[in-house]
Amino acid sequence: MGAKTREKEYEERREFNPVLWSVRKRLFALRRYRINLILLIAAVVLGIGPWTPGVSPWVRLAAAAVVALVGVSIRVAFEWERVPVLRFGRFIKIKGPGLFFLIPVVDVAYDYVDCRIKVTDFSAEKVLTRDAVPIFVDAIIFWMIWDAGKAKLEVENYHIAVPLSAKTALRDIIGKTTLARLLTDRDEIGQELQKILDARTNPWGITSLSVEIKDIVVPPELEDAISREAQAEREKNARVILGSAEIELSEQYAEASRRYKGNEEALTLRSLNLLLDALKTKGSMILVPSEVPHVMNKAVAAAMARNARGEGGSGVDEGNVTVE
Fold this sequence. Notes:
By secondary structure, the chain is an alpha+beta fold. The chain has three domains: 2-112, no CATH class; 118-218, Band 7 domain (Tetrahydropterin Synthase, Chain A, 2-Layer Sandwich), CATH 3.30.479.30; 262-320, no CATH class. It is 53% helix and 19% strand. The chain is built from eleven helices and nine strands. The chain has helices at 2-9, 18-29, 34-48, 57-73, 148-153, 158-175, 179-184, 186-201, 220-260, 264-279, 292-309; strands at residues 74-77, 81-87, 90-95, 98-101, 107-109, 113-114, 118-128, 134-145, 206-217. Strands 2, 3, 5 and 6 form a four-stranded antiparallel beta sheet that branches. It has a three-stranded antiparallel beta sheet with strand order 7-8-9. A hairpin with a 2-residue loop joins strand 2 and strand 3. Helix 6 (158-175) packs across helix 8. It is elongated and about 140 Å long.
C-alpha cells in the first residue's frame, strides 16, 4: 500500500488526454481513404445500377471492375507519412507522401509511419545513485524516424522499444553518477543519454534529438539532510567572504596608521570626526574630558596654520569639524 501511495505522489500530471488524442488521430487518418470509398461506390453503382438501353451489361461490368480495381489500388499518404511496401512478403521501397498505387494482392502497405518529431516521457523510479541515494527521475525524449523501412522491419514495436531503451539507459547512468552531479549537471547527463540512445536506435532508423530531465525527486527523509548540507555550505562561504573583508580592512587600517604616525594634528582631527559622527545618532550622549575643547582648538588652529603656509594636507578633512 505504501509503494502505491508513493508512486501516485511522484506521478507526473498529464498535460492532455491520451485516449481522446488517439481517437482524434484515428478519425483524421480515415480521410486518406475518401478516394477509395468514392471509387468503390462508383463501381457498385456501375455494376448493379439501372441498366442503360444500348449498353452491353458486360461493358458495364468491365467498367465497374476497372473502377473497383483502381479503388483498391490507389493510396494516399499525408505529408508527414511514409509507407513501406512489401511485394510477396519482401520489402521493395518506401512510398509517399501523396498519391501512389499498389498492385492488388501482390503489394502490401505495411502501415503508415509518422516521421514527425515525437515526445515521449519516461521515468526511473527508486533508482540508487552511485552514493546509494534512492531517487525518482522523470525525463522526456525527443525522437524521430528517419528511415521508415528500418523502423518497421528491424524492431517489432518502436513505440515501446524507444522509451524502454531510454529508461534502461537512464537507470544505468543514475547508477554511475552521484546525487550532487545529477542535481547540477542535468544538461551533460541528457547529452550522455542521447549518445547512448543513438547507438541503440540508429540501427532501427530512429534518432534521438535530445533528452531532458524534468525532475529529480529525493525521498523526504533525505531532504532535511541535503538542506542542512546546503546551509552549512552557505555559512562556510559567508565566513570566507567575511574573512576576506577583514583582511582588506586590516590593510586599509595599516595604511591609515602609517599616514597618521607622527602627525598629532591629523590624528586629533580624525578623533573629533569620529566623535561628531557619534553625536549625530539620535538619543546618544558621550562624556568627554574637560580638556577636550582646548585640544580641539589647538588642533584646528594648527591645521589652519599649516594650510595657510601651503605645507599640504594630512589626508583628513578638517572642514568637517566645528568647535564652539
